[in-house]
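Human:
I keep going back and forth on a fold encoding question. Comparing notes only helps if you start from a blank page. Show me how you would write down a chain together with its backbone fold. Write it directly below this note and I will take it from there.

Assistant:
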Amino acid sequence: MPGRAQIVAELKRALRAAGHTYADVARQLELSVASVKRLFSTGDFTLARLERVCDLIGLGLSDILENAASHAAPTKPLTVAQEKEIVADPTLLFIAWLVLIRTPIGEIPRLYRFTEQEVQQALIRLDRLKVIELLPGNRVRLLISRQCSWRVGGPIHQHIHQKVLQEFFASTFTGHEEEFVFFGYPVSAEALGRLKKVLQDASRECADIIDRDRSAAGTRKGAAYVLALRPWSYSGFERFERD
């Protein structure tokens, strides 16, 4: 069970992702903005006020608690053996991804070309691999963090770089729903660290927006984003650099 600080932090993330401000919360709770700021500072929320803020965001209190627990959990990467078995089977890899993004298990055969038996078999294998715990009624409990990082240089990391990213970057990113920003500049180690934190925060906020997307499955379409940063200089410019 997440603590009060984690719950308040999750509430702040949810407000940002939903585009709400303290002023919106103040109106919802019939309080002054200063009083709302004190609430978030002290974490002294009553259950009734928590539920009213959840109503404003459009989430249930159970969603806030679950997401708070997920963010508070330590990141646990898969083992090499787990990754090898998952990436070797496209069906297993895809269903593992669907589980990680919280697709309702009962919806998978309806939304994708899997039979109920194929989904069941994949869930049993993920249970055996200790990725999930398979519960009665085909409910699942993740045994790894949803923010788990793939093992650097591991099978899934290699699969992403060799296949997924090549296909992703084949686009010119000129469509009206696309966005591409590339910028390079010499920076200090301190600035590089700050940039890394900004990207980490942005990644969490993007994940929060996706978590809170309650639109019907039939209205959704595939999308992907990449956040990347590393010390790097273009090799084509190396001949212009002094030693």
